[in-house]
Specification:
By secondary structure, the protein is an alpha+beta fold. The chain has a single domain (2-88), classed as GIY-YIG endonuclease (3-Layer(aba) Sandwich). Helices cover 37% and strands 31% of the residues. The chain is built from four helices and four strands; from the N terminus they run E-H-E-E-H-H-E-H. The protein has helices at 12-18, 43-52, 57-61, 76-88, and strands spanning 2-9, 24-30, 33-40, 66-71. Strand 2 (24-30) and strand 3 (33-40) form a beta hairpin.
Length: 94
């Protein structure tokens, strides 16, 4: 697993430049407070989709301005997501 603890600005250019189109876990932040932790088979597409308009009302109330991500393959995604939820205590949950 590769967790990018760097704080990346949550914008289209940064997503395209730094996020691979591969399986993993991501965390969205608003002013360095964790808003949401999610998983995807394609991190780049998922973060881009959410950036274009998030349909989660809780995330819309806490607009993310930064993100982090981790490349995690297969079934390990959900386990890692749960670990990050326990660690980061996001404001929004599914």
């Amino acid at each position: 697993m590769i967790y990018h603890r760097n704080w990346y600005p949550y914008d289209a250019g940064t997503i395209q430049e730094h996020v691979p189109p591969t399986s993993g876990v991501y965390s969205l932040f608003s002013h360095q407070e964790c808003v949401y932790v999610g998983t995807s088979k394609d991190l780049q597409s998922e973060l881009t989709r959410r950036l274009k308009g998030d349909h989660n009302p809780c995330i819309a109330q806490h607009p993310p301005d930064e993100f982090q991500f981790e490349v995690v393959l297969g079934d390990e995604r959900n386990t890692r997501r749960d670990e990050l939820i326990a660690e980061l205590n996001p404001v929004c949950r599914d």
